[in-house]
Design brief:
There is one protein chain. The protein is of the alpha/beta class. It folds into 2 domains: about 130 residues, Rossmann fold; about 140 residues, Cytidine Deaminase, domain 2. It contains 10 helices and 13 strands. A 6-stranded mixed sheet has the order 6-13-11-9-7-8. Helix 1 links the parallel strand 1 and strand 2. The model has no long low-confidence stretch (mean pLDDT about 85).
Length: about 280
């Protein structure tokens, strides 16, 4: 019997890379984990071959994966784009950085596309987390809470338009809208920090809505919008009344727990079809 080819997981922060690695290992396929220094937690992979690398040693990282027979890789977890000073590349890393080029200093999706291009050129196949872990991307449905009323639906429509504008310039994937007012947009700080700001900007009357969607033209292989229990808790603390995210394009972490938290908080949790909330269409 031929042994299964190992899967490489390039792990940032959060629970997603851990879930991917554990699920694949449980299926009997070997897993090798690259933990990105300053982002992922090496202690989360005690039973799996793993090694910590900083971005500046990316060439060594790829060589290590090849030494372990890895051909397919999954990029998973939260990663803040490093500053130039923090890279400290070695000679091989400098050559790899040159191949990535100016994308390293552009938006998040730009650098991801460049990194995936380099991986492909080096013989790796990039898989999306959803390709190896079933059930991550919910279809359109109301998963928890009351049906959004007309005001909430208007806020979702407004939020979708704002997210698309942000995504077109490769800035962020989320925003918060309350009664037609954009309270906050997501940039490099991430969703949790954005929601924390919203708590101080809350207006009287019906609460706002967190809206998250895929950037226009974004690759579906990495950095998809993500919702999880912490997102629900932060939304509740900020006084929001619901979370709306793009169906079939947003990762729902810890599905049962996330839905239960939304129900407990009285928030709606809506996976929506963008076509139903695009200006000029009727739902």
């Amino acid at each position: 019997m031929i042994a299964a080819e190992p899967l490489g997981v390039i792990a940032g922060g959060g629970g997603l890379p851990v879930r991917v690695a554990e699920a694949v290992a449980a299926s009997g396929r070997p897993v090798v984990v690259v933990v990105l220094e300053g982002h992922g937690d090496a202690a989360a992979y005690p039973a799996l071959p793993h090694r910590v690398f900083r971005w500046g040693l990316a060439a060594q990282m790829l060589a290590w994966l090849k030494q372990h027979g890895v051909r397919q890789v999954v990029l998973a977890g939260t990663v803040a784009r490093p500053s130039l000073l923090s890279l400290r590349p070695d000679a091989a890393g400098m050559k790899l950085l040159a191949r990535i080029g100016k994308a390293a200093f552009s938006g998040d999706d730009s650098i991801l596309r460049a990194v995936m291009k380099v991986l492909a050129e080096d013989g790796f196949e990039v898989l999306g987390a959803q390709q190896v872990l079933a059930g991550l991307l919910p279809p359109a449905a109301l998963l928890a809470g009351p049906q959004p009323d007309d005001l909430a639906r208007a806020d979702i429509q407004r939020g979708l338009a704002v997210c698309r504008a942000l995504g077109a310039v490769d800035v962020g994937q989320g925003c918060v809208v309350q009664q037609g007012l954009v309270l906050a947009v997501e940039a490099i700080e991430g969703t949790d920090a954005m929601l924390d700001r919203c708590g101080r900007l809350h207006r009287e009357g019906p609460g706002g809505v967190l809206v998250k969607c895929v950037k226009p033209g974004q690759s579906r292989l990495a950095d998809l919008p993500t919702i999880g229990p912490r997102t629900v808790d932060a939304a509740a603390a900020a006084g929001l009344r619901g979370l709306a995210f793009e169906a079939n394009g947003t990762i729902l972490l810890d599905r049962d727990t996330t839905i239960a938290r939304a129900r407990e908080a009285g928030l709606f949790l809506l996976a929506f079809d963008p076509a139903d909330f695009t200006e000029g269409t009727t739902a």
